[in-house]
Each structure stands twice: as C-alpha cells, then as structure tokens.
Fold this protein.
Amino acid sequence: MTLHEDEIPVDEAVIRSLLREQRPEWATLPIAPAGAGTDNTMYRLGDQLLMRLPRTPHNAQAVRKEQTWLPRMAPHLPCRIPEPVHAGTPGSAFPLAWSVYRWIDGDEAGPGSVTNWAAFGSDLATIVQSLHSIPLMGATRQGGLSWYRGGGLHACERWISECFDTCRTIQGGLNLDIAYLQHLWQSALALPEPSARHGWLHGDLKPTNLLVQRGKLHAVIDFGGLSVGFPDAEHSPVWDLPPKARQAYWDAMSLDDATWLRARAWAIAVAVSGVSYYWGTYPLFVSECLSRLRAIVEAGGEQ
C-alpha cells in the first residue's frame, strides 16, 4: 500500500538484504509483517525484535532522533517505550536509515483490550505528566524536535482551512457536520496563544500507539513525532477514547479551559488533514479520523 509520492517500497527481500549486510546474525530469523502506519512499515524479526523502516526520506529523519533520545527518556517513564538495539544505515536495497527495537507484547487500546476506561484515562495522564516533566537535557525546539504539533494553531490556519475545503468536496459526503467542526476550529484560533513552558512531547498518543496488557496500559510506542514544544496538541488524541477515559484524563491533568479547547482544535485539525490527505489511499486511517471527528460533534460543548 503506497501512501506518498516519494515512498520507497519495502518487502521481505529488502529486509533480508539489509540484515545480511549489517546484522547477519539476524538474517535467518523468521520475518512477518507487523503493521504499517502513515510514516513507517514494521516487520517482526523472530520473537524478540521489531524492524521499522521509514516510508519516505522525510520520515527517515525520525530514526536518529529516537536512537538518541529514547534510551535517555526511558528511566523517567512509568511504562515501557521502544528500546533501540540497532541503528540501521542506508544499504544497497534501501537508501534510508532504519531501526530495530526490542519487541513489546501487547494489544492496541480498544474495546477488546481495555477493561476499565476510566482507569486507562487516568494512567495515560500519569504517563503524559511524566513525559512532560522529563528534563530537556539540552534539547530545544529546533530541527527534528520542532514538529508542528508543538507550536501554535495559527501556523496551521491556512493549511487546515484548505483541508476543510477538500473535505467538503469529497464525493458522496462524509456524513459529518463540517461547518460545526470548522466553527470549533476557528473559535480556538481566537484564544490566547499557549504560554506553558516547552517540554518533551510524544506527538501522536492515539490508541494504535498505546499497548495494553491484561486490560491495562502497558507501553507507548512510535516516537517518530517526538518533539519539544507546547503541550496542547499532546492532549488531542483523547478524543479517540471513550468519554469515561476522556473525563478521567481531564480530571487527572487539571487542564484549564483554554488548553482543553486548543487541544480539541488540534484534534480536529489532525483528523481533517488526515481525511483530506489519505482519502482514497488509506481507508483505515481515514476511518479513525472520521471516528474522532464524530466523537467531537456528538460531545458538543462537553469536555
């Protein structure tokens, strides 16, 4: 499944070639697809390893970032995060940097894996608070650590307006109150800019990046969006969770109203842009985005 114009295809032959060149001791391990997101394709190597290959040259910039910072952040967090075990370099079969991590067992957060959504929301808040409290260790919001979701909403105003326009033109319609969602987005633009101190941000805490064991939140994965910045957008994926989890998260974080409204606006912006960009190429991701937008509409003025 190709999602981007500059995407570099990957298959088992590419995997074997890279391993033979750089980690021959792993070259004969069983290989199985382990999922694919918008930025990376994953393969499981044997029982203990996960190989992650960026889809595009731009996505490859995150590899070194994770290799550098995740080992330094892990001791500060109350959950498992990816543990890098190999920093792959471009090879004859694949021209980008890639990585190998320890495999983490667990299921994606969802109705079939989470046993108590209120507890889940509270546990997620604890992880987010811990992440945001980690010392920056000299890191600043520049280069690879300056992802747009750590900035202000106004920088995205024109882009998101165009995404709303695209959503209105989708053939067959989206069965969605686009006008209401755009009203919420524009209302958030009238709020004061965030003033919280910069901190570490995961950038994409959606359910597919939250692993559950025995009904409880166990690990956070995919730090490709790791950055330094304002925390508002960090809270936006809670709109992918049931209301009980969202309320528990709100209560535990003690967010002020302006931060929460900006977070909701970020949730809208990311989902609208996802529908706009991936319509026709990635129906599963589009479905996730639409579910988030419908949850926001259904909640109305609620938290």
The chain has eight helices and ten strands. The CA atoms of residues 160 and 269 lie 6 Å apart. The mean pLDDT is 95. The chain has two domains: 12-102, 107-299.
